[in-house]
Write a structure and sequence with these properties.
The chain has 2 helices and no strands. Helix 1 packs across helix 2.
């Protein structure tokens, strides 16, 4: 259970970090999701 919580926390932290990093090029939730998808998929 603790491992699952840690994985979720790490995933959220990475997603937020990517969102902040890509924020200069997007300002919508859709753009944020696409930016995260692009960064994860390469």
């Amino acid at each position: 259970m603790i491992v699952k919580v840690l994985l979720v926390v790490v995933f959220v932290a990475v997603a937020v970090g990517v969102g902040i990093y890509c924020r200069r090029s997007t300002s919508t939730v859709d753009g944020f999701i696409l930016a995260v998808a692009r960064s994860v998929l390469g």
